[in-house]
Prior knowledge:
Elements: H1 3-25, H2 28-44, H3 54-72, H4 95-104, H5 108-119, H6 124-131, H7 135-153, H8 156-159
Amino acid sequence: MLPEEYNMCVDKYADGVYRFALKVMNEMNMAKDIVQESFEKLWVNRKTVENAKAKSYLFTVAYHLMVDKKRKNRLFDKYSDTVFEYAHSEQYSDLNELLHRAAERLPEIQRSVLLLRDYEGYSYEEIENITGLSLSQVKVYIHRARLQMKQYIGHIDAVI
């Protein structure tokens, strides 16, 4: 990867990596650090990373950095299956905020794979490569995350 290609990667992918890190970490400064460290690793390994695979490389690095930071802060959830105790029952019109609150309640691994799939548009196979999980694990975590979000939101009439 040439320096010009690296600069193009920064322009194209920095916002996406930041959004992903912010949604998972829920802290602006940590998300910025993850973006910076991800691009630093890309720069260090620029000779071995193909330009066509830079986006996947960045998201993979960011994902692993987030897992490491969560473990260091003892906030990383051991992939437990959290069951929501109640459904959302109040009338609310801001669907985006409601979805954001529902996603925040998910275990970290489920939130990560759901964000990669639904927000960033990665395929199951790409998420498998990014996270190091098996394809079936990726599908199960996404399915469980969607079920838990559905349970939190409740009936569609509560949203509209």
